[in-house]
Amino acid sequence: MRKAALHNLGCKVNAYETEAMSQLLEEAGYEIVPFEEEADVYVINTCSVTNIADRKSRQMLRRAKKRNPQAVVVAAGCYVQAAGEELKKDPSVDIIIGNNKKTELTEILEKHFAGKHMSQEEYLISIGDTRRYEELSIGKVSGHTRAFVKIQDGCNQFCSYCIIPYTRGRVRSRRPEDIVAEAENLVGQGYQELVLTGIHLSSYGADFREGGENALLRLMTDLDAIAGLKRLRLGSLEPRIVTGEFAASLAKLRTICPHFHLSLQSGCDRVLRRMNRRYTTAEYQEVCRALRACFDNPAITTDVIVGFPGETEEEFRETVDFLRQIHFYEMHIFKYSRREGTRAAGMDGQIQEAVKSARSDELLNLESGMSLEYRRNFLGQEKEVLMEEKTVIDGVPWLTGYTREYIKAAIPWDEEKKGQMVRGIFREMLTGEIALMEEKK
Predict the structure, then answer these.
(1) Core-most of 27, 38, 118, 235, by most CB within 10 Å?
(2) Nearest to 141 by CA among 152, 132, 130, 149
């Protein structure tokens, strides 16, 4: 029996696809082993969202070949789409598999071991030309109490800083009946929480012939009806999809988690226009108002890029003021990374790294304070927590998990309660990120 090891880089979509490839290999008779062990096949699902992601992808490919020079090293995913010609010359890589070809992994390996070597072009398509959703699916989730379900691929937005439309292609949506079937299977295995994920989740259904308007909402309504499902969580949303009507409809779903990640990127309208983000700060603020009107203190999180080309000190200050005004639960702060092949890479006014770092540090400090303030709002409240994992704090073991708002809480370690819903009162902050919960008997 051949051994296979997989390593994932990047987003939740990549993580889902890595899990799916692992299950394809297992079904084909491979023994799945940890990446740190010696294997016959190493599969690295690469990422290309930043230059750092590119570098990490190259490092992991070389690390795999160094671990076992006789092994077959497979490079898959976004970095392959972005740098396929370069990877064909890399002695660390034996097989490259682009996006929308991962379902063929076991067949490709079978041909390789049989000596029927195919041209690398066979496994690297022009991703922008395809309209086919790659039918990867999972039947189980390794080592988690929540399950991610991929519902779409691709992006049509072409933000000026982003390489993803070139590595993932155009929007392709998974059929709702297939999603529901996978969700029912996962819930039947005991998973109480599902997280919907995709490259551009808000575009789900835009490619359906029968019309994509409200397709995401219809899908969530179908999933909400699954017996045994306790929680349904959304991945990142484009702000424009969230109208007052959309928010009100979501609030009627029994399973919906009031935790919304709304990508912002900048709190300055001039920067947003240069980014090609297609909304204004006023429109974004109205989306947050709509969610807060329909949900009781929902968790609103976001992404912010600092140091975008041409970002002046005045524009950065506008962003800081806007972030304070919205008052997010969490913010993911990124320093702008120049990506060849994107419009922003050729823009004038590239910002010095020292300036980016200073702005990033300021926003990280702001995020820390706002996040702690949001968490403290829940002290004294009774909440339900899905207990997930053992966490050691100052040498003491705790069982930790998350509320529907994705607030992390802890109870004294009790292995029997792992994977269970536990209700209790938030008494104090055990750490800056974890609340101490007193169980309700």
Answers:
(1) 235
(2) 149
Q: Are 106 and 151 in contact (CB under 8 A)?
A: no
Tell me the residue type at 238: E
Phi, psi of 38 (to 5 degrees): -75, 135
- For 115, other C-beta atoms within 10 Å of its C-beta total 6
Contact yes or no for 390/398 (Cβ under 8 A): yes
pLDDT band of residue 357 (cuts 50, 70, 90) is very high
DSSP 379-424: TT-EEEEEEEEEEEETTEEEEEEE-TT--EEEEE--GGGTTSEEEE
Instruction: List the 146-153 sheet strands across, edge first.
Output: 172-173, 146-153, 193-198, 231-234
β-strand partners of 404: none
CB 133 within 8 A of CB 174: yes
Q: What share of the chain is helix, strand, coil (3-state, %, to 5)?
A: 40, 25, 40
Give the DSSP letter string of 271-318: HHHHHT----HHHHHHHHHHHHHHSSS-EEEEEEEES-TT--HHHHHH
**pLDDT tens column, 309-340:** 999 999 999 999 999 999 999 999 999 999 98
Question: Among 229, 128, 104, which Cα is nearest to 179's?
Answer: 229
Q: How far apart (Å, rounded) are the C-alpha atoms in residues 307 and 338? A: 10
Interatomic CA distance for residues 366 and 321, integer angstroms? 11
Residue showing tokens 């598999």: 97
The pair of three-digit structure tokens given for residue 178, joined into one six-digit string: 């297939």
In total, the chain counts a number of residues equal to 441
Please say whether the beta carbons of 124 and 101 come within 8 A. Answer: yes
In angstroms, the CA 75 to CA 61 distance is 7
The candidate with the shortest Cα–Cα distance to 80, out of 167, 19, 163, is 167
**Strand 193-198 to strand 146-153: parallel, antiparallel, or no bridges (unpaired)?**
parallel
Residue type, 408: K
Q: Are 39 and 71 in contact (CB under 8 A)?
A: yes
Residue 61 to residue 57: CA distance in whole angstroms: 6
Q: What is the pTM of this model?
A: 0.93
Contact 95, 75 (CB under 8 A): yes
- pLDDT tens, residue by residue, 72-84: 999 999 999 999 8
Radius of gyration of the chain (CA): 22
